[in-house]
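Internal tracking record. Fields below are filled automatically when a chain is submitted to the structure queue. Please do not edit lines marked as system-generated. If the sequence contains nonstandard residues, flag them in the REMARKS field before resubmitting.
Queue: standard
Priority: normal
Entity type: single polypeptide chain
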Amino acid sequence: MKLSILDQSPISTNQTAQEALQESMNLARLGDTLGYSRYWIAEHHALPGLACSVPEVMLGYIGANTKRIRIGSGAVLLPYYKPYKVAETYNLLSILFPNRIDVGIGRAPGGPAEASNALSDNYLQHVYKMPDLVKELIKYVDNEDAILQASPLPEISPELWMLGTSKKSASFAAENGLAYCFGQFMSDDNGEEIIQHYRDSFQPRKNGQKPYVIMTLTVICAETTQEAEDIALSSIVWGLQRENGEGKQGVPSIEKAKEFQLNMGDQESIERAKSKMIIGNPEKVKSKLMEIKSRVLADEIMIVTITYSPKDKHKSYQLIAEQCIE
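SYSTEM-GENERATED OUTPUT FOLLOWS
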């Protein structure tokens, strides 16, 4: 099974942002040695507890400290940027790290309205122009502009991906001949139907190109299911805290998460969050991943894992790799 890593660079309550970013590099290096196919890092703005606002900076650092694993953005929030500059940036990364660079494209704000306004004077207008922005980016990455090149030009161009959580994003990926990453961990929609729609609608933009799908899931694995449940509680409680306008100090420890005072609504939220996650021992996690991959016809599974302790996160990815990566 092909597995990959999505890292949101969360900051735990006992960490600085610098330490969290260092742990992101450590995770990428671990994924490199364990046989994971890709490491993508997310872009967020002005969100307390998440450390990475500029993926392309981190990718230079991560690329220099890894050897094999593909690295990329999950995602470039394209409404904030000129496509030409994005193409220049990722072409340069492709020069430095040949045949290893992915460009995930997204349109979410990735932060509060104040951050969107600070980053772009016309964010919503640029969201509406997303189809044109993507087509322009494709033109530069494929080096099909007759007048202007996004130099330097790598021998192997970065791979373009559309990231999304809806049928609309799947349609857009298919129409433009892009690989598609469905964020099931953020969506209540039926990933199986959306992915099938993408496959049925796919229009190659290059000779021999075929549809390719990644399904992204939240997974926490430990030696026992009970241990995995305890570890997962930290990220689940942190999610509750953020919904309540709290959690600015980052991911709480397991002990603090267990002390969190729950009301009836919170308990329902916890159960709902757990239902969207895969939590368990290695055998349970493998069985669930294989079932989902087969059912939705995903070519690859991407895993996001948020824990308080980097040690628990590393162990989770290690156990999954030992069970699932051939």
